Amino acid sequence: MLSRLSRPRAIAVCGAPVVALLATAAFAPLPFSVAQPGMTADVLGKNKGTQVITISGAPVRKTSGQLRMTTIEATSPDTRVTLPEVIDSWFRTDQAVMPRDSVYPTGDTTREIQQYNRAQMKKSQDEATAAALNYLKLDDKDIDVKLELADVGGPSAGLLFSLGIVDKLDGDGDGGDLTGGRVVAGTGTIDASGKVGAVGGVPLKTQAARRDGATVFLVPRAECADAKAELPKGLRLVPVTTLKGAVDALAALDKGTGKVPSC
């Protein structure tokens, strides 16, 4: 036998599961990571007391200015990110909500992800060294390059590593520094041929760069639109596609000769 509910009571009974569902959804873990501007490091100098680039087998120049690689900091792969956190970050310019799969490999444990990121960093360092020595037409059998950067993983520092090696060995090719005495920051992967590849989190990296004093930011050309979306005031974007293009752009910026690429 069924009894008929009054309208207010019916609404209350029917609404209860919806409220419960919304409450559950609000605090259920979601497949996202929350990221924010991370640390930057001058590859021409020291990081946490250790020289980032050490070269033996060839004369090394004394450099001025800075070449700062940039990072983002994301919630760890085992951190529970809930709907309120996603909504809060969505409306902030100093944070970004990113699919966890775009930040971390799927199906791996935290330890495996850390190992993967370290492996990606090591590969990036090897490719960056090869790209720089190939650009300078130097034999890697005669020159030993050691790169040290603690607590950073992934391949996105490749371009800045290569530029740091070039600056220490050859500068701008005419006795000057690639930086022109400026604080130059940037991001981008690189392969042994010198091709620059896209990375993630560029708007957050530009914020980190400006925070740490950069006035110029080298960005993979494919990510110009992302970089311009929330560009900090006082930071000039210089798009690049190759190591040679990056060197040429910095030289043109310093000497005031030639055209400096822009987004």
Automatic annotation (TrEMBL):
Listed Pfam families: Lon_C
Signal peptide: 1-28
The keyword RNA-binding is assigned to this record: no
Source domain of life: Bacteria
Keywords: Signal
InterPro entries for the chain: Lon_proteolytic, Lon_Prtase, Ribosomal_Su5_D2-typ_SF, Ribsml_uS5_D2-typ_fold_subgr
Domain Lon proteolytic, first and last residues per copy: 137-236
Protein name: Lon proteolytic domain-containing protein
